[in-house]
């Protein structure tokens, strides 16, 4: 296959290889054939801007087809590779750059169908936290609880440093925190109890699917994102096959700054290898609560610093009482676009 053009941005065409990007925001991306892959490199990427690789066979009049999920720039090197089938006709590539910034700390997850642990599953597009909710984020939002009438006291939740995940929170605590963050940011709270915003108590809340506020991911959304979405490479852990590279778990979490159990403890988020969507710590560090409105027990995914490697696999799931504040339970947020 011969690359005959590389089209960039949303405002024009550039037929050089590699082309300049005329917005002035970015250095020109690199483009190369490496083995049987087209490899595009953006260095540096722009924090919060979304990139999507697309292709078209003829340049004029044909639709551009996404061939890779959207990635959010993190200020560092962004590398996107696309396999090329032998004998594939020449085609045009472009890197679409969405001018809209993502909400802070969230990653867009384009929806679609993927084989999950429950079988072939179709998931709609959503947004999910790049990392687990940190102790610093938890405290910042929790400080607003009295003013909004939430029963999230200063004793709810534990943490080591501000960049460590919050832990020892229940499913109810996580839902209330999501609602409180939504209210403090002027968004619509997702969880309701008796038609009112869920702010206190332990009654089973309902979910307003039309609300634009923060929420827990469903189990299907969590696993879809943990696997890397539509760009999944099919690895057993989120981000790869080497558990030590992608996860904090029992056999590598000792020596933690704040030991919790047998010398193990949480570590700062984002230290391990990210998955195909740029998400970190979906395997290990702390277990993550997921939404369920159907059962008396609630699901947790991802494994933790004091559990074995198999609990960090993207297929692993277990459920427990929603009021449980075990030392290794945390969460990450999601939102509906």
Report on the architecture of this protein.
The protein is of the alpha+beta class and 337 residues long. It folds into two domains: 3-101, Immunoglobulin-like (Sandwich); 103-337, paralog of FGE (formylglycine-generating enzyme), CATH 3.90.1580. Helix content is 11%, strand content 24%. It has helices at 135-142, 145-148, 171-184, 219-226, 243-246, and strands spanning 3-8, 30-34, 37-42, 50-56, 65-66, 71-72, 78-83, 91-98, 106-109, 112-116, 119-123, 126-129, 191-193, 196-197, 206-207, 287-289, 298-301, 317-320, 329-330, 334-335. The strands form six sheets. Strands 1, 4, 5, 6 and 8 form a five-stranded mixed β-sheet that branches. The chain has a four-stranded mixed β-sheet with strand order 18-17-16-19, covered by helices on one side. The radius of gyration is 21 Å and the shape is globular. It starts with a strand and ends with a strand.
Query: Which CATH architecture of the largest domain?
Result: Alpha-Beta Complex
SSE string: EEEEEEEEEEEEHHHEEEHHEEEEE
N- to C-terminal distance: 37 Å
Given the helix and strand composition, which structural class is it? alpha+beta
Number of beta-strand segments = 20
Compute the number of structural domains. 2
CATH superfamily label of the largest domain:
paralog of FGE (formylglycine-generating enzyme)
Form type: globular
Rg (CA only): 21 Å
SS field, number of helical segments: 5
Mean pLDDT over the full residue set? 84
CATH class of the largest domain: Alpha Beta
Percent of residues in beta strands?
A: 15-25%
Helical content (DSSP H or I, runs of 4+): 10-25%
The oligomeric state of the chains shown is single chain
């Amino acid at each position: 296959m011969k690359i005959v053009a590389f089209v960039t941005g949303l405002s024009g065409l550039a037929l050089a290889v590699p082309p300049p990007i005329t917005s002035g925001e970015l250095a020109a991306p690199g483009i190369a054939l490496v083995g049987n892959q087209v490899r595009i490199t953006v260095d540096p990427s722009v924090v919060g801007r979304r990139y999507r690789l697309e292709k078209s066979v003829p340049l004029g009049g044909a639709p551009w087809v996404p061939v890779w999920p959207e990635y959010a720039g993190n200020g560092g090197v962004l590398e996107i590779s696309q396999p090329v089938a032998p004998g594939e006709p020449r085609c045009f590539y472009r890197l679409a750059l969405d001018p809209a910034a993502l909400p802070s700390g969230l990653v867009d997850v384009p929806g679609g169908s993927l084989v999950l642990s429950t079988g072939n599953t179709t998931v709609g597009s959503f947004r999910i936290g790049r990392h687990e909710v940190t102790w610093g984020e938890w405290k910042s939002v929790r400080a607003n609880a009295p003013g909004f009438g939430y029963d999230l006291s200063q004793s709810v939740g534990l943490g080591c440093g501000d960049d460590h995940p919050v832990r020892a929170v229940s499913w109810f605590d996580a839902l209330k925190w999501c609602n409180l963050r939504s209210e403090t940011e002027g968004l619509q709270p997702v969880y309701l109890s008796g038609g009112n915003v869920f702010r206190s108590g332990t009654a089973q809340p309902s979910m307003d699917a039309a609300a634009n506020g923060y929420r827990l991911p469903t189990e299907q959304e969590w696993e879809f994102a943990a696997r890397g979405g539509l760009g999944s490479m099919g690895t057993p852990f989120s981000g790869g096959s080497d558990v030590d590279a992608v996860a904090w778990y029992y056999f590598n979490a000792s020596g933690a700054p704040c030991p919790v159990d047998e010398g193990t403890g949480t570590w700062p988020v984002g230290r391990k290898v990210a998955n195909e969507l740029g998400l970190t710590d979906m395997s290990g560090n702390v277990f993550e609560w997921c939404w369920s409105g159907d059962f008396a027990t609630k699901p947790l995914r991802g494994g933790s610093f004091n559990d074995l490697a198999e609990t960090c696999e993207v297929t692993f799931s277990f459920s427990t009482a929603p009021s449980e504040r075990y030392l290794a339970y945390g969460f990450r947020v999601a939102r509906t676009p």
